[in-house]
Write a structure and sequence with these properties.
CATH topology of the largest domain: Aminoglycoside 3'-phosphotransferase, Chain: A, domain 2
CATH superfamily of the largest domain: Aminoglycoside phosphotransferase (APH), C-terminal lobe
Number of helices: 12
Bound molecules: adenosine-5'-diphosphate, 2-acetamido-2-deoxy-1-O-phosphono-alpha-D-glucopyranose, magnesium ion
CATH architecture of the largest domain: Alpha-Beta Complex
Number of strands: 10
Distance between the termini: 58 Å
Largest sheet: 5 strands, antiparallel
Amino acid sequence: MAPAEQYLQEALNAFDFGGEVVGAVRFGSGHINDTFCVHTQPGEDPCRRFILQRISRNAFHHPEQVMANIAGVTNYLKKEIAAEGGDPERETLSLCTARDGSYYHTDPEGGAWRVYPFLEDTMCLQSAETPERFAASARAFGKFQRMLKDYPAETLYETIPHFHDTEARLARLKEVVAADPVGRVKEVGPELDFVAAREADCSVVLEALRRGELPLRVTHNDTKLNNVLMDRKTGEAVCVIDLDTVMPGLSVNDFGDSIRFGANHCDEDERDMNKVHFDLNLFDAYTQGFLEGADGALTPAELDYLPWGARLITLECGIRFLTDYLEGDKYFRIHRPGQNLDRCRTQFKLVADMEACWDKMCSAVDKYR
Ligand code: ADP
Ligand code: GN1
Ligand code: MG
């Protein structure tokens, strides 16, 4: 048996699924972790499914800290959800304990495996499709922010240091360009020019944080549309998932990352730039939903900086894809050569579109504040 298969088998054995495991298949389209859907047969009862994940060692150097954050935040959310009359088993993730009583199993290579019950009758969208659905995801992320507003942020580990430090991301790009480890710098002249023209932008939100205008909060930090599960019947958002990067951060980045991924009609790795357009209507719908979900939890300065959050997280993500391309695709999973460069190009096209309708983005926020 190949080691990867053996580790999967051992991880399956480490948890009690309450029934015979009848299969485990790769699942989802995340770029970072290895995700499997586990099918079990508990006697005569219907098949039950679970999500089994191996946390990426490459992205997360301290899986025990990731798991401590997730345990803390989900237990806290469960109480908040129950207090508001919601369903704590469905509206946030639930960690399953391994047979040894801990929240994860470690394989011989140091990979940490964890299990969540599969949230049934939900869907995971890769594109917003309609403004209503996008607004539903926005309410969920806004509510996530509100529910965690009194969580003791100082108890959270920084699971990826400087994760949304755009200045540090820019500095890293420059280092990689100088080293040019796989000889790809010659292919990306226009992309490097695009970044060079926006170096000062990389500091806008961080400066506001340093001046004390923007507060540090407990944030999700990876608010892609496919990190919220929606109810199949009602289309409402059910549960915010992918909690690995929950840590102190900026609300405007949570807003911005959703816009980056969802306020357009193309795949993140679309090759034809003529198909890539920022959609102001979707931006409008998300803004309305996010502010509804946050329900007054955001300060006036945070509202002021929401459009910047969108523009800068998109620029930052493009810089990260570009850096990874220049490093030889070591961080983001790829399925074909050049995919990270294509991902970078879509992000930069979206940034340019946002710049072109900047006033309208600001007016949309003003409409709902
Ligand atoms: P990654 O960090 O690699 O993106 P995620 O935690 O987002 O990993 O999980 C990958 C995919 O697995 C999600 O996009 C979603 O489709 C699915 N998924 C994760 N957790 C659950 C769950 N509890 N119930 C149902 N589907 C889930
Ligand atoms: C990664 O794990 P996933 O696929 O939800 C990445 C995000 C990027 C995103 C780009 C831990 O998200 O920061 O914005 O890809 N997650 C991590 O699609 O680096
Ligand atoms: Mg994900």
